[in-house]
Amino acid sequence: ASKKAPGSQIHHQHGNKPNLAQYVRGQCWVSLAWVIRREKRPVALPLLTRLVPGISNTGKRVAAKTLIRAVYRLLDGRKVRVLVDSWYMRRIFIESMLARGFDVIG
């Protein structure tokens, strides 16, 4: 809730609950994790996280593409599925993932 926190901005609260404020102060982080199966259970291993300084959705997509570009060589030759929420499902993001040979699930 601090105004001094890096990247602190006012964000719309998407919960739509009557007892919560419509707008809140917070930071926007984009994280990249590797999901593996361990004893038949999926486990997410965080790889990288990046603070998005602005509040635009474009900044989130740029941050996500930057994170993927940073680890792309580790993934080369492997079957990769990129699982993202609806904020990232835009043509430019999907096309950049498909160009790398990744499947995209949104």
Task: Summarize this entry quickly.
Helix content is 26%, strand content 35%.
> Approximately how much beta-strand content do the residues carry?
25-35%
Uncertain segments are: none
- Shape descriptor: globular
* Mean model confidence by pLDDT: 82
- Roughly how many Å is the radius of gyration? 16 Å
Strand order of the largest sheet: 1-2
Helix content: 25-40%
Total separate domains: 1
> Tell me about the biggest sheet?
2 strands, antiparallel
Brief descriptors of the model:
two-stranded antiparallel sheet, single chain, 6 strands, 106 residues, 2 helices, alpha+beta, 26% helix
Structure, explained:
The structure is a single chain. The strands form 3 sheets. Strands 1-2 form a two-stranded antiparallel sheet. 8% of the residues are buried. Helices cover 26% and strands 35% of the residues. It has helices at residues 57-75, 91-99; strands at 9-12, 23-26, 28-38, 41-52, 81-83, 103-105. β5, α2 (91-99) and β6 form a beta-alpha-beta unit. It has one domain. It is of the alpha+beta class and 106 residues long.
